[in-house]
Write a structure and sequence with these properties.
Layout lengths: L1 E5 L3 E10 L2 E11 L11 H18 L6 E6 L5 E6 L6 H14 L8 E9 L4 E8 H13 L3 E7 H6 L7 E7 L2 E8 L2 E10 L2 E7 L3 H7 L11 E4 L5 H6 L4 E4 L7 E2 L11 H12 L15 E5 L6 H16 L10 H29 L21 H32 L5 E6 L3 E8 L5 H5 L5 E6 L7 E8 L15 H11 L3 E5 L3 E2 L4 E9 L2 H11 L6 E11 L2 E14 L1
Parallel strand pairs: 1-4, 3-15, 4-8, 6-16, 9-13, 13-14
Antiparallel strand pairs: 1-2, 2-3, 5-7, 6-7, 9-10, 10-11, 11-12, 17-18, 17-24, 18-20, 19-20, 21-23, 22-23, 23-25, 24-25
Length: about 575
């Protein structure tokens, strides 16, 4: 599994394996950002050029392809809050209320956030809510997916610690100048706030719970309330340690309890806080159980089951021992009277079964045993609405042909405005356009296609920084109407011209697909030279409505240019 911890100035990426003896860290890397990202959280283009490039650099040392990837982000990137629960409110009522509270905060339109919430079961004292910038979620999720990984889980760094499952109640603190930000779960209730010390005396600056309850939870004042273990993933000085001396403070050490696949890995990370969060991802159970920012916004449940509680395991073991000690009940032989009643019950059940099946059989052959009319009847189905079928068929045919024309138009613009030898990849589907292009100058793809990119980034490709890799993604454009659908090359004409025009290509046919009014015959045209790719694109721009270009993919290596392309085509017949 791969774990990534993202802070304002760097990310830490590690890959580990799990064995019966524990967890083994196989590789770990620390990648600094070119600039802090705290001010770029709502600017997707700039965020992608910094964070997206760092993720790709990390994947060069730690490939995420085919791996489940868990991500922890620092709590400064998100907004925590709580909502008190009520007895008579449903889950949908809570969700509507949480969204309404977020709406009345009147954030600027440019600061789009996604809402998530979590209930701690079984008590459900309050609801922990999290608002995270949408561009941040999208950039991380898409970057992992583009690198071939599985975006498995993402959550706040505080959740990695307090929802780790080592204990049911826990708190995390982080020093912010002369104050301490805390996140606390106790008795199925989530709280957060700020604490400061004045001449060694603790003082609650802000909190979502009463001050005396917070201080008692940290054992900073005398109280009958139970205290909780306090985890500190960041470094603490002597004064801080003295201030928290009365608490159950547990200062975390990076990668404590984790085996190393190599001795040099211990020196790969210089960031103390981020390394401890990575340790929590490796050894804890928050990933996959706590609230997940990669999923759809909703209220999730968090329950400390036997997976998290040693006490529950001990209880289950003792209960199992007691159950084994109970004497087994002696079996009593069945009397003859009971045997007779059992036999009669079986005969009755089997008789009813055969009777019901016989009645059903008579209905199927149109000779029912019950009913006033005895003559043979035929039930006719509702007649088909031919006009509706024709209209639906016409609309579908036009949309498919519009999409085919749009793909051909996009390829024509790219083939004429760019050099195919400089592509690493190019993909055009029914929903998006994605490409990777190498050039010393800005290729200006957005103006070539006359489209606004959904994501865009650039990175240096080489030590001399004279060549750059340009990454673009576009949503598929809106399709223009076509007045006539009956003009252009037919299937046979297209195949003849394909054979006379191209020199190096292969055809791969797939099984036909049968629809209500159409038969689709999928075909892959695989072309292996630059000139043939351009000629095939030109030929496809001249086809009629029965030849549909559905998808295009191009593969190439810029240092050894040899572009190869696949045109995914469907032939249609009535």
């Amino acid at each position: 599994m791969v774990g990534i911890v993202i802070s304002d100035s760097l990310l830490v990426c590690g890959v580990w394996s799990e064995t019966e003896q524990g967890h083994t860290l196989n590789n770990v890397k620390q990648i600094p950002f070119t600039e802090p990202i705290n001010n770029l959280l709502y600017q997707e283009g700039e965020l992608n050029s910094v964070l997206g490039i760092a993720l790709r650099r990390a994947s060069e040392s730690i490939p995420v392809s085919g791996q489940d990837t868990a991500v922890a982000i620092i709590d400064e990137f998100i907004y925590h809050s709580v909502v008190e629960t009520e007895v008579d409110l449903s889950r949908e009522d809570y969700w509507d209320y949480i969204q309404w509270v977020e709406k009345i905060k009147d954030r600027p339109a440019s600061q789009e956030t996604s809402l998530f919430a979590q209930l701690y079961l079984p008590e459900e004292i309050n609801i922990h809510t999290v608002a995270c910038p949408v561009p941040l979620i999208r950039t991380i999720k898409l970057s992992i997916a583009e690198l071939g990984g599985n975006p498995y889980w993402m959550g706040p760094a505080s959740s990695v610690i307090i929802d780790a499952g080592h204990v049911s109640d826990a708190a995390m603190i982080r020093k912010q100048k002369n104050q301490y930000e805390f996140y606390l779960v106790q008795n199925c209730r989530f709280d957060r706030g700020l604490i400061a010390f004045s001449a060694g005396v603790p003082r609650v600056i802000s909190a979502t719970q009463a001050d005396d309850v917070i201080l008692a939870s940290f054992n900073l004042i005398q109280s009958d309330l139970d205290d909780v273990p306090v985890y500190s993933p960041g470094k603490l000085g002597r004064q801080a340690l003295a201030a928290w001396e009365s608490s159950d403070l547990r200062v975390m050490e990076p990668l404590e309890g984790v085996e190393f696949g190599s001795d040099i890995l211990a020196n790969e990370i210089g960031a103390h806080y981020e390394a401890n969060i990575l340790t929590g991802l490796i050894s804890g159970s928050a990933a996959g159980n706590s609230l997940n920012l990669f999923t759809e916004p909703d209220i999730t449940d968090f329950l400390f089951t036997e997976l998290f509680s040693d006490e529950t395991e001990a209880y289950l073991e003792s209960a199992a021992e007691l159950e084994e000690e109970k004497p087994a009940k002696a079996s009593r032989p069945m009397s003859s009277g009971e045997m007779v009643w059992l036999l009669l019950a079986l005969i009755l059940i089997m008789g009813l079964f055969f009777a019901m099946n016989y009645l059903k059989f008579r209905e199927d052959i149109n000779k029912p045993l019950f009913g006033a009319r005895k003559e043979y009847t035929i039930k006719r189905s509702v007649p088909l609405d031919l006009d509706a079928i024709v209209d639906e068929k016409s609309d579908r045919d036009q949309n498919m042909h519009l999409h085919s024309r749009a793909v051909s138009s996009i390829l024509a613009k790219l083939f004429s405005g760019t050099d195919l030898d400089r592509y690493n990849t190019l993909t055009v589907t029914k929903s998006f356009i994605s490409l990777e292009y190498m050039s010393g100058l800005n290729p200006d793809i957005e103006h070539t296609l006359d489209l606004e990119p959904t994501s865009y980034s650039v990175e240096a490709a080489g030590n001399d920084s004279t060549m750059f890799l340009w990454y673009y993604s576009f949503d598929f454009p809106k399709m223009d109407n076509i007045d006539a659908l009956d003009n252009g090359l037919s299937k046979d004409q297209f195949l003849v011209q394909l054979d006379t025009t191209l020199s190096d290509y292969t055809l791969k046919y797939f099984d036909q697909i049968y629809k209500t009014n159409r038969i689709y015959e999928p075909l892959l045209v695989w072309v292996r030279s630059k000139d043939d790719i351009v000629n095939a694109g030109t030929l496809l721009s001249k086809v009629g409505p029965n030849v549909l270009l559905r998808k295009f993919v191009l593969f190439n290596e810029v240092d050894k240019p040899e572009p190869r392309a696949g045109f995914y085509i469907s032939f249609t017949t009535n």
